[in-house]
Amino acid sequence: MVLGIAELFAGLIDPDASPFVALGATVIDHTPEALREFAIEQFGTRDKPVLFLSMSLVMVLFAVAVGLLERRRPYGSALLVALGLFVCVIVLQRPNATLVFAIPTLLGTAAGVVTLRFLMARAPLRAPDPVAVADESASPSRRRFLILAAGATAVAAGTAIAGRWIGEQMRAVTADLERFVVPRPRVAAAPPPAGTDPAVPGLTEFVTPNDTFYRIDTALRIPAVTSEDWRLRIHGMVDREIELTMADLLRRPAVEKIITLTCVSNEVGGDLIGNASWIGYPLADLLAEAGVRPDSDMVLSTSADGFTAGTPVAALTDGRDALLAVGMNGAPLPVEHGYPARLVVPGLYGYVSATKWVVDLELTRFDMARAYWTQRGWSARGPIKTAARIDVPAAYGTVAAGPAVVAGVAWAQHRGISAVEVQVDDGPWKPAELAPEYSLDTWRQWTWRWDATPGNHTVRVRATDGAGVVQTEQQADPVPDGATGWHTRSFRVE
User: Fold this and answer.
1) Per-residue pLDDT averaged across 60-64, rounded?
2) Quick check: helix, strand or coil at residue 124?
3) Considering the entire predicted model, what is its pTM?
4) What is the 3-state secondary structure (H, E, C) of 277-315?
5) Does an H or E element contain 342, and which?
């Protein structure tokens, strides 16, 4: 009942006032790094549904405990009130919160206490006699209590669903996105050369579709920002502060670039990486208009939900294709990927560069400000490390004896890939065939053909970047600046 009423009024007031969302976001903010990385490794992009389910189970257990405490004295009510006040504090600490945000939680808590007292006043005081239970007419109070409890549960579920529905209707972001027209780029991306996408079953395609592009972020509820409401403020250590609306932005010449993004949480051989065509506006031009002061070395970008990332100024002004993107693969940015605008910066892990739903760029210094993940022990600058992945054959699969193909992708954004090598069991390293390079900022497919012999085999892969540096064999976890090590696949040839 508490959450049902709270969600209903959060839908009417502001979806960000939801206590469930606030609690979940707080859990994410304070989850130990080891546990967070374990969750991403185990569940990948399903980590948030798992969190929601876990929270729901904890709340069910809490409700049972409250009911048991309330049996004799109003300890359950007191615990419920204490929790409600605690959640109010959490809600009010969320970005953009006002005192009004406390109303849903307070009303939900009040409804919960009233419902609890109402049910306890009508609950059987002792367990029913097994003999009497056989006679349905002997336990009317028990049946009445179960009916009332079921009714309260139904009302709670109904109000929660209604609150969510109202909140979704009030956002109107989906309708805004459907009306949004992606600007025609003044400079279109060059088409990938022939052979960029080798026709090998199971090999990752060169361009990742929007619906399969990985999503890792801290947003438990996706921020709802329409293109009309969106503003971008550029300020801090600049000669002049700038504020841009979407209309201002769309009057500028847009460009299109194909760029590969990588999450720092990507394990060796992981799939938290994707390549897309982005339409947007060069960040270097926007920063030049503001006039970046020489002593500034960091841009602190802020999302509509309060997330922050610290990006080196040099990475936005050194000529690489760093964009304020509004389009992805020819369509508006999907809401879950940052609509209406996000940052795309080649060569840096997303936690320091790829801020979604971006609304603020503050020019500052690394010794003056720390972003969300650097406050939690991650490195400040986040350059992407050289890596290669095996896509084919499948792990622990079966391969037919004779001519066979090993294939995958390699990346070292903004340095490029100059070579990939494959090793079978403990044999010599063999050079793989590289697909044509599109640019230094995109991944590169590779294939290696061999005469597979019967038995169990293990294949390893390593890449060399454009500067001639070979990918390290040393195994390292993602924390604090990205995983390292050679990807390995084991399989059987029959």
Assistant:
1) 76
2) coil
3) 0.75
4) EEEEEEHHHHHHHHCECCCCCEEEEEECCCCEEEEEHHH
5) strand 342-344
Cα pseudo-dihedral 393, 395, 400, 404, rounded to 10: 20
pLDDT at residue 124, rounded to an integer? 58
272 & 338 share domain = yes
- Look at residues 340, 50, 45 and name the one whose alpha carbon lies nearest to residue 217: 45
| More confident of the two residues 220 and 333 | 333
| Contact present, 447 and 433 (Cβ < 8 Å) | yes
Domain around 61: 2-171
- Structural domain tally of the chain? 2
Residue 215 and residue 132 share a domain: no
Last residue in a domain, options 361, 376, 391: 376
- Domain-located, residue 388: no
pLDDT at position 19: 83
Considering the domain architecture, whether residues 135 and 244 belong to the same structural domain is answered as: no
Residue 107: is its pLDDT beyond 70?
Answer: yes
Q: What is the CATH number of the domain that holds 248?
A: 3.90.420.10
| Structure tokens given for 28 | 């994410």
Q: Which residues contact 340 (CB under 8 A, 6 or more apart)?
A: 176, 177, 180, 225, 226, 227, 230, 246, 326, 332, 333, 357
Which carries the bigger pLDDT value, residue 126 or residue 483? 483
- Judging by DSSP bridges, how do beta strands 487-493 and 398-399 pair with one another? parallel
301 vs 312: CA distance, rounded Å: 11
